[in-house]
Amino acid sequence: xxxxxxxxxxxxxxxxxxxxxxxxxxxxxxxxxxxxxxxxxxx
Length: 43
Description:
Elements: E1 9-14, E2 23-30, E3 36-40
Antiparallel strand pairs: 1-2, 2-3
């Protein structure tokens, strides 16, 4: 997978022990100044 500088968000996935599928842990979001924020997903 490649990254594009125009992309400003990415989902973070986690695979829990004994799970059959991964779940979304949260989302990373970057602003134009280069600050990155992580928001946890809802459970």
